[in-house]
Input
Amino acid sequence: MIAGLVSAPVPLLLQKSFGFGDRLGLATPGHLAAVRQFPDFLPIFAQQSIREMTRTQRTPEEVMTAAQQALDAAGYTGKWGADGDHLKTPEDVQRVARAGFCFFTIDPSAFVNNAADTLDEASLNQEVAALERDGLFTGFDWKDYYLNRVFSVGHKFSPFRFDEETLFRAAVKYARATAHAEVMGKAIAQASAGKGEIEVSVDETDSPTSPLEHLFFALELQRRGVPNLVSLAPRFIGEFEKGIDYKGDLVRFEEQLKVHVAISKFAGPYKISIHSGSDKFSVYPIIGRVCRDLLHVKTAGTSYLEALRVVARVRPALFAEIAAYCRGRFDTDRASYHISTTQAQVAGLPAYESTAQEAVYLDEVAGRQLLHVTFGSVLTVGKDSKGRTFKEGILETLHERADLHSELLERHFAKHLSQLNAG
Ligand SMILES: [Zn+2]
Output
């Protein structure tokens, strides 16, 4: 942490929380204005994944300092957290710990076997044998523990039982991921002198996390002694695409979420963490009502889009150049994202001329996803026709119109937070 700055993040433990990712480092005043209206949420003001830091060429120290400076300037003395998001290796842990982050999100998705749901019996048995051979359950009679036990996760739900097939599929899918979480948990305990709080996230995997798989995953984390586990992010049913509303069956979503929450109380308690949590307005009332205080929500790209909205209004010519650049980058940049917008839809977007096209780019699905996936290119390599970087032009506009930037963010997040409390 940088000397001279007063405001410092702390672990938020099991209090209801909301993560405000800020890729440009200028959004904290607007985030703070919004969360001050909803004091039942504790804010996470510094939150960036290693992938986002790579794409924006920012260091953990820069992310932390941007939040601290804004909070000092605002005289904020309340609690806030700092989330090193989607950490995949012990080196990632050390990088964010050195910068003062104290909420660590372990992402063991590289060790999740997504094929487990569909393997035939012979392949499944082979994979189970490989888990045993590789020592995943050494010293633990895992088949006896899981198969000969009834898990009563709450009086509203019929008790859970594993049969051999469901247990084997859960184990093949997640056992190696829990072992990696144990390794990461030890690195976090060491790097944070035992104080860091931990989330484990498997939200970016191909297949949804069934309640029974969640139970297996959580019990394995418990058995392996992953310390200070405060939240867990399953992959939910339906689609949590970047920057747009939830797509899926709301009734089924609510039914499953209730079971996930019951499991989180049984095997924890820990919070349920909603990743890609921006703009999921149709499910917020459900999420708020079902999770109550055991809730963490993460957002990031949606703040960047509000920054671009400032640019679109204040410097339409600059925004037009950015939008045209993004249309050219889309096919390449979309690769690592979970979105449904197609190249043909993007190619069909009109050129930006004035606020008459603002909604097309900043409120409708194709425009939002286009701007969402191209942020790394825009902020690191994109240049305007005069050869000046887009980033410079964007930051200059945001400094000039800090009032408008803050106002748009406040309104946008007040809408998020009020909908989470609307259930
Ligand atoms: Zn995530």
Notes: The pocket of zinc ion is lined by residues 86, 201, 203-204, 275 (CB under 6 Å). Residues 244 and 279 are 5 Å apart (CA to CA). DSSP finds 18 helices and eight strands in the chain.
